[in-house]
Amino acid sequence: MLTFILRRVLTMILTALCLTFIVFYLTNLPPNLEKLAKSEGNARMGDAEVTGWLDKNGFSRPILLRYGEWLGIAPGFRRTDDTGLATGRCIARGTDPAAAPRFCGILQGHWGASTVFRQPVQQVIATSLSLTGLLMFWVMALMVPASLLIGVLAGMREGSRLDRALSTLSITTTATPEYVSGVILIVVFSSSLVGLKWFKGNATGAMEHATFENFFLPVLTIALYGIGYIARMTRASMAEVMTAQYIRTARLKGVRFRDVVLKHALRNALIAPFTVIMLQFPWLLNGVVIVETLFSYKGFGWTLVQAAGNNDIDLLLGCSVVAVLVVLLTQLISDVGYVFLNPRIRVS
Fold this sequence. Notes:
By secondary structure, this protein is mainly α. It has 14 helices and 2 strands.
């Protein structure tokens, strides 16, 4: 197991390097750098002035060298102007250039500064990630038990009325996009059109103090979409397990149906849904921007869209690093969890 984990960690590092380089290359294409020069310098810059600004700030050097600087494995860019004043990536404004470090990439904790929020990238990501983390926690707390319960109940007796009713419900929730279900929930439970003003129509207040009134609707909107998907996977897995030979043997021996489900079928039936559940974490991190925008909740997805829409290169790169790490870590946890869910699965 230890060797398997070490191999996966090495693969994760190589994958992270490849993915971050692709994002770094795309965000540093000439049109994006030109927008950056005009937003940081002067919007009326000509081509020669843009080229001069890029040369002055080190953006015209080879892409691999700049990627190494961003990672922190290559010395940071430095430049001395005509007056003898040294500036560069590792030299903060108002500090002594002689005391500045040579390396200042993400490995050293220097993620750059956001050109949109005018704050360090770490601070922006930490704030938005904490908000999305709170949202993810309550979504998973509602979505996972509900979807597993629906899937197990539907798969226990395949083809029954209960199975057909729960399957129809699951398909309906999965087929309804979040922006549709969110609008419906807002109209029904928080607007004057219906009159059921039980909840707040936005979650702006939840960023400071989350309550049931201002936080339940966005949680329910996201959970409804995921419940149907996980429930369908659980139902299919449960129905397949219930037709296995060892289940039939247990039934013929007179084991109670409840014990057959809980002690024999459930553990094996959870292998496929476990993978689906782990895949919900990357989706919740990046894919809920519609819900966050709809309910005015400024989480990680909202921040990622703001960075992409405003050409905030450092913030966009920081968000990509977090997203890649979350995806790779959830996949590692998913692979390791296979062994504990089914002892027949062994790491070769």
